Amino acid sequence: xxxxxxxxxxxxxxxxxxxxRDRALKPARQRLLGKVLRVELKEFSSPLVLVFSERQVDVxxxxxRRGRLYRCDACRRSAAAAQSSATDRAxx
Length: 92
Description:
By secondary structure, this protein is of the alpha+beta class. The protein has helices at 4-20, 26-32, 73-90, and strands spanning 36-39, 48-52, 57-60.
């Protein structure tokens, strides 16, 4: 689908604007830190994947050609670091 990158960018921008505009949402952001949410929509052939990190939400278009969630090793390491950081805070 040619519009998928545009749609994922729009969703990412909207989520980031919503979650980071108000300090009252900080507890919600902290609960989401390091989490990965997979959303399947009938309109897309592959699921949307939301990766929550400390500074933003990344919206990915699903699995790549090799069946991997992340486009590059840096993305994978970033998500793993966010997950590790969230675990460290959850279990002091």
